[in-house]
## 1
Amino acid sequence: MAFYSVNRRFVAGLALAGFMLAAAGCQSSDNGILNFGFSKKDPTAPLPPQDPKVLASQLRAYCPKVTLRDGTAFFNTYAKGAAAKPKKKKADAAAETDAAAAGAAAQTGPDGQPVDPNRDPAKIVYQASITDVTRDCTHENGQLTMKIAVAGKVVPGPQFTPGTITMPIRVAVQHGTDVLYSQLHQYQVQVTDPSAATQFVFSDANVVVPEPAATDYQAYAGYDENTPATADKSKGKRKKRAAAAATN
């Protein structure tokens, strides 16, 4: 009988403890954190608002990555002009044919492909290349100011002579197809050792564009050989004046 009485008390204690836990669970405000299946979330309850400061801080920390377009990482300079050709003497047809064949062979590279006389490797003055790019950004007064830097080296070629070389380096920032900034720099480097590469670092600290509304700006840096040279209009005017004076 004693065992039966103790057992009944034990079962009653368990039931009372379970009831108290269930009541505590119903009265708690854990919002489902301690949900053991006794309650369901309210589907109409609004989601907690997102903190807009996270997005703003990410945007203010945004600094567009600088990339190199295809074909803009290298720049070669070739010697201009050629030695004066001696006047040809009269020769028979066979000799002229042999001379033409020899000239064609001279314009063929080691791989058998024709060589552009304006791109002859034997006439390279120097080869320049960009090896690394970096940037730094500042957000202020509704503007994004960037400092874009490139590092590279200059390797002397067969036609090199010590002196100052000029490299056309363009820095640009775009938003989709809109060009926000574009500047061509004629950067000069002093090269004196024809037997070793010369390192250089170029930077443009004046890249200023409107503050971006999203992380979708594209920044570029590289060589630009396609910019047409500015014609010297004064020379043309002098020639015209000389021609007019000669006719008078």
## 2
Amino acid sequence: MEARGGEPFEARSRGQDLVVRVAVLSDTHAPRRWKSCPPRVAEHLRDVDLILHAGDVCTAGVLDELAAYAPVHAVKGNNDGDDVVAPETLELDLGGLRVAMIHDSGAARGRLARLRRRFPRADLVVFGHSHIPLDESGDGLRIFNPGSPTDRRRQPYGTMGLLRIEGGALAEAAIVPVT
């Protein structure tokens, strides 16, 4: 899938290191949960170079709204309508960091090993579906679920993720509350 928003993705360069700031969203569930971009989500989107959405936008209008902030890459979720044109999986090189995306990573048990087999070249796998934020590492792989900013289910807060990639490595990953 091409980045939405008309502008090609360009990372900012600081000194010798390439720096890429990424917002990570999943499970926005429009229009039932996401009527428009929540103000606390928008605050974070203003400072990013790229947005990743791990599925269940439900309507393509969410991707168009996000593209007003930065280029967007998305994968299709199980609740996405026919108007959401996105692949089931996606692999990207973000400033030298190999990132894979999928909506549903399957059961928690064996997840790291299963995602390592599915995406053998990835440094980071971004996923959604459960609405449960997760940042876990093992076997040379980091897996990251930003949770949901609008449908927190049994979680204390609605959340999203923020990544900072420097010099081809994940320098920082944070799950931030937005409700």
## 3
Amino acid sequence: MTALGNSRYKVSHLACTQAGLLKQVDEIQPDIIVIDIESPNRDMLESLHTISHYNPKPVVMFSSQQDTETINLSVQSGVSAYVVGDIDPERVKPILDAAVARFKAFHKLKNELDDTKHQLESRKSIDLAKRLLMKTNKMSEEQAFHSMRKTAMDTGQKLEDVAKTIVSMLRSLEQGHEHD
């Protein structure tokens, strides 16, 4: 790709279509994947989806296929930029730059969302453990939380893990009493 001549992008490998995309990406570990294809097929899209899920990388696809369904399937499979038609070599670098920036922004948001979901789940576990302690041990909310926090500090565990253990233990005790 002479269009990348003096840019920060260096082409380290030109993949052939006969070899599997997954295998080549796994062996080479590229920073960005650039695909020039007339029309992406189902196998390629499945491979891109797998890469996107297990080893995400920015993917730029140059294609002559311009139907909306193919574009949507490509983007859902992890393509960061889908460019239709002949491309002016001067535009290649800015397209790659935009795709990398979009990829980074998307993954930053995804990581923030994952962190938020984890914090919410953690909060739910802690609240449930507090309620169960309050109910079974006739504690106030403050006493239940202090008890869990002390256990976490004494055992070197996260508060969330202590809460999950408490919930599990108290639920199994409740089930044991139901069978009596």
## 4
Amino acid sequence: MVDFSTPAPTPEEMERDREIGRVLFAGEFNFVFGAQKLGQLPDPILPEIAFAGRSNVGKSSLINALTGRRALARASSEPGRTKQLNFFELADRLTLVDMPGYGFAKAAKAVKEDWQGMMFSYLRGRPTLRRVVLLLDSRVELKASDEEIMKMLDRAAVTFQVVLTKCDVPKPPALAAKLREVGEIVRAHAAAFPDVLATSSTTGTGIEELRAELARLANPV
């Protein structure tokens, strides 16, 4: 099990980290490569943060909100359309990886299994991968595919952090209940980071906090 027993940051440290995150994510951000096969992966140089989530969870919208770009990561109206690992380089200090969505209903079983196999091979073998940001839709119940991905991350021994998306939609009591529910679930997974973040790409809720969290994993200036 990964040891996450670190002291909680003070308000001053949190404000400092938010500013560090703001500066980092305001830096130059470029698409590097889209890999459809493991043999096409770019060389592992910078620390990597991979974003995973069920199709239509709002992954592209969240990446765009983090970077302040409108269409850097393209959202698709067709669930499961993204079929590759997309690599984006941030200020020569961090790489964000947009992973294919999972759990899309229309895909053939063989395609789902092939994509999951590629994801697991990438997660298990990538030396520069620092964390997976696992996105869950705050409006809906957890699906079997979400639990499968958490178990896969446990097996790959890759630290992952759950981030709830679209948190502007549920009423505050419903959102608080969802945070408690997901918090209990992640505590049962050996590789899970204990803090669950609530975000909204529409209102900006939680975006500063997530930037600060990811900035701690970037190469120093």
